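Contributing: when you submit paired examples, paste them exactly as shown. First protein:
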Amino acid sequence: MESKTIDLFRARLREIERAVWTQTRSEALCCGVTMSQCHAIIEIGAAGALNLKELAARLGLDNSTLSRTVESLVKDGLVERTASPLDRRTTFIRLNDKGHAALDRINSTWNRICRDMFQSIPHERHNQFIESISILADLLAGCCQNRCCENRTGGKSARRISTTRNKNMREGK
């Protein structure tokens, strides 16, 4: 691949990174909670209830970092911890009514933002756009998992992404 193509791609990635950072640094977009809390609320809401280890895996965070985020959500009255009836060492985290209301506000806000973005894209290109973003997300996750963090295991992820990408290309997707 040409150096010019790589340079252009990297420049566009930096533009995306800056735009996302600008959008997300505002707590208003996450309805008064931090971005970490926002992501935790969304994942807990999607699952119904998770233990700390499951939530950490979904968010790609270590338990100690996530523990502080969950503690702040408990203090803010957005989530509740309950002990597992099968193993008292396991604690489940779930949204309470106030947490569900925060989730609804977050989803409404981001749905509105995404709807506005899609209005700038011709309707017939919506699926192409989603597919392109999906490929980029998969590649970035694979890159970070396999090249940036030497202490993680991750060969399967990159192979799966590559296999899926190659299959999609063969099928004309």
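Second protein:
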Amino acid sequence: MPEPRPKDARIRRRRNPTPGFKLLPHEGRTGPPPEWPLPTHPDPVTAALEARKWEELWTLPQAVEWERMRDFGTVALYVRVFVEAAMPMADEKLLTQVRQLDAKIGLSARSMRDLHWETDEPIPDEPDEPTEPPKPRVYVPRKP
């Protein structure tokens, strides 16, 4: 029996989420990040690191859901704890807090699965050169 032909890469993109899962756009959230909801950190270097991380996070696919749920405070708290945990000589307890907040906002693959979030697959780039169509299979009858 002949094998089925593979689907064209342009139509292989997943359009439906796994049942019970929320489908997030692979391209991420567009637009400027929301206003920082916490008081500005007194250290200007730490404040700049927090601002950079805040902007970075709001381009992720998960940010679509954070915005929908208005979860600005939890994301800001994650940013603050993440930046503090990344500092030299940081308290090891901060790493535990970062992991717990990660689970709440869905930054890791596991936490996304636990929250029932997934991204659609990216649209593959068009090939630079046209590909050859598959050669037709020729039916050769067996000899009795």
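If you have annotations for the second protein, write them as plain sentences, like these:
DSSP finds five helices and two strands in the chain.
The beta strands are 22-24, 117-119.
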